[in-house]
Every structure is written in C-alpha cells, then in structure tokens.
Amino acid sequence: MTVSSLTAGTSRRGTHLLSAVSVVVAAATVLVLGLCAPSLATAQDDPDRDLKVSQPDFTLITLPTTLRLPRYRSAFRVTHRFLRPLGAGDFSDLLSDFFGLDSGAQIGLEYRFGLMRGLQAGINRTSDKTIEFFSEYSLMQQQNNGMFGLAAIASIDGTNNFQNSYSPSLGVVLSRELGEHGALYFEPIWVNNSNPDPSELANDNDTVIYGLGARLRIRPTVYVVGEFLPRTGYRPGVNHGSFGIEKRAGGHVFQLNFSDSFATTMGQLARGGTNSDDWYLGFNITRKFF
Amino acid sequence: MLKRALYGILAIAATVGIAACDEKLSDLTGPTPNLQPTFSSIQQNIFEASDSSGRLACTQCHNAIGSLFTGLNLTNAVAYANLVNVAVREKAGARRVIPGDPENSYLIQKLEGRASVGARMPLNSPAYLTDGQIRVIKRWIELGAPND
C-alpha cells in the first residue's frame, strides 16, 4: 500500500467522520434551541398549543398527522421495533422471550421543531444507521374549512449515516377529524430512489405510497390506531401495516404497536416489510415540549 | 403569506433537486467502471478486456482458435450470434443466453460457478467476475438480451 493511498483512505474516513459529526452537531443545536425555546415564544395564546383530542400526536404509528407544532416548540419521539417475529416458535417460546423484548430492536430517535406557524421540521435516526430529515407544512385546518385538514410533507433519508442511498419524498396528508372521536387519514406520498440499486439495474426506482390510517378514541385518553400502506412502483416485501393502542398522559403519548415491518422513515416504508407472515411488537413514546 | 409560500417552494425545490441522487452504477461494477447493461458494453469491458482485479478476458480462450476446443467464440464479430438462444454443447436442453431469463441462462451459471457441468469461468483466472459485474450481465439478459 502506498503512502498516497493511505492518505486518501485517511482523508475519506476523515470526510465521513466530519459528515457524521456535523449531523450530530446540527441535531444537538436544534435540540438545545428547542429546549430553550420557551423564552423565544411570544404568542402565549397560540391555538396550536391547545390539546387536540382528535389528533393527540404528530404521527399515527409511522405516518404523519396534520397536527401542527407550535412555533419555536418541539417534540421528541422514540420508536422501538423488536426484531423477534411474534409467530416464531410456539406460545411458550414467545413467552420465554417475553414477546420479543429479549431480542434486539430497531430503535429510532426523532426530534422535531416548529420553525414557524404551520411549519415543522425534524430529524429521525434509526439504529440501522438511516438518518431522515423531514418537514411538514400545514396548508389547511379542518376547524377553518369544516371539511378536512391538509398538510404537505417533504423528507429525505439516507442510509449509512446519510452517506448512501438517498430517498427524497414528497406527499400530502389529508385528515378528516371525527369530532372528538379521532381522525381518518389518506396520505399519497411519492418516494424517489427507493430502490437501492442504480436505476440502470432497476425496473422501478420510485415508489408511490397510498397511506391509509385511522386513530379512534375509545376512552378519554386511550386510542386505537392503525395504518396500512399499499404501494405502486418499486415495492419489494410486503406492504407496511401496523396497529396499536396508545395512552395520552399530559405531554406524553405511549403507544404499543404491532407491525409487519421495522420501517419508520419514508424510504424504509417504501421498501416495505420482509415477510407477510412476520409481525413484530414495538412501541412509540412521544414527548411534547409545550 | 408570501413568506410561507416561499418556504414551501424552497422545501419542494430542495427535495426535487436532491431527487437526482441515484446510486452510481460504477460503484457497483468495480474494476470495470464503464460497464453498462448493453451487449456492446459487456463485449468491450468483459468479453474482450481483462481488468485491474486480475480477471482475464474471455477471449483469451474463447476466440476463433480456442473455440475449436471450447465450442464458444466470443470475439466481437460473432459473440452475439454465438450466445443468444444458442444451445449448449456440453449440456442438453440448456441455452447460453435465454432472453429475459438470466437465472437459467448457462452463461450466468458458468460465471457464478453453479453450472452442473465444467468449471467456473473464467477458467484458471486469478479472479472471477464480481457480483456487480454479473448483475449487469444479468440485467442485460433481463432486458431481453438485445444486440445493442
């Protein structure tokens, strides 16, 4: 190995390290800004700060809702998908593994921030080293038009700490709130470059997701949630499906869910689940900082 | 209102701008960075050329003289006619390249070393084709193995 190749290798590693460090620094800066944000907020009567019982969270299970994040406020979410298929072995095996909790998990940490009224942006990193940057802009609110809520969403995720396989997406979130009983959602989302292969080797390099979802309030602070994501275009694996039950407690939402994939980012959702027979236990915890 | 519209447009523009971030085929094809899933490219980069991995060109053996022993001539003028839909001499019922069916094409089976007869190709070469190079050849066959 020559000195120049060693130098080039060191330089590449240095560039990757710098890239990873800059992502972490940016995320930390946004986090600190968000946590210090109460002093920045001027409008104490911001209606976006009011609790919306029909839409208590910014996501269903993976799909976004049309809930607005107040300006200069933030929220944090942890997603957990245990890797043990619930159908593996018999029930005693499942009990022995405590429903999958003894196995590893795909974990996601997400932070979002209200940049201005109706506009929120955030970052989500999952433990398979995927980093997703996302934003959502509220175009219409049901309380204004009496019909539906509408938001535009855009995101980009990249694997290997945002160094490979970039998958940008654009979509809309259409919501219909059912009084205080919950809400229904339809979310057509286009995901570009969802196929990890070069386009020369792929029949389809894009996926269109037709997200369907619902959140129904069954007790004053308890909801059941479900979502199903049929796809067209590049669609390996099974369509993502998930359902769960959740409890709202102050600024927290605790959700226990069952999914047929580990996906939480748009690129992962476009690539679907692994096997139609496999379902996995998981949970989400959201904390609002307002 | 204008400011909001501007933010929206910027977000969309940024996403669409990044939409051109497809993976590079050259990252996959390693020692033959110019390899494309076309017959002319495969002919030029694989059949007729050795590469930096040490892999020998197919035409070192599969040429006009060698074909007297190997039964296959992969030199430029006759390679396509000798491959696509041509029966395999050493295995009854098999065809060298079946358009649209890379898995059952004998060419791929020989390159991957899973043919039931004979050795993996290139024979006695210091290196075989990489997975990426084989994938490009498979893609050409998937696309119908055109003479392009």
Describe the secondary-structure layout:
The complex is a heterodimer of chains A (290) and B (148).
Chain A: H1 3-36, E1 74-82, H2 91-96, E2 105-116, E3 119-126, E4 130-140, H3 142-145, E5 149-158, H4 159-162, E6 164-177, E7 182-192, E8 206-219, E9 222-229, E10 231-233, E11 240-249, E12 252-259, H5 266-271, E13 280-289
Antiparallel strand pairs in A: 1-2, 1-13, 2-3, 3-4, 4-5, 5-6, 6-7, 7-8, 8-9, 8-10, 9-11, 11-12, 12-13
Chain B: H1 2-18, H2 25-29, H3 39-47, H4 67-70, H5 79-83, H6 106-112, H7 131-142
Detailed description of the structure:
The complex is a heterodimer of chains A (290) and B (148). In chain A, 19% of the residues lie in helices and 44% in strands. By secondary structure, chain A is of the alpha+beta class. The radius of gyration of chain A is 20 Å and the shape is globular. Chain A starts with a helix and ends with a strand. Chain B has one domain. The model of chain B has no long low-confidence stretch (mean pLDDT 85). The chains are: A alpha+beta (290), B mainly alpha (148). Chain A binds chain B through residues 115-116, 118-119, 135, 137, 152, 154-156, 164-166, 168-170, 192-193, 196-201, 205, and chain B through 3-4, 7-8, 11-12, 14-16, 18-19, 21-25, 27-28, 36-37, 135-136, 139.
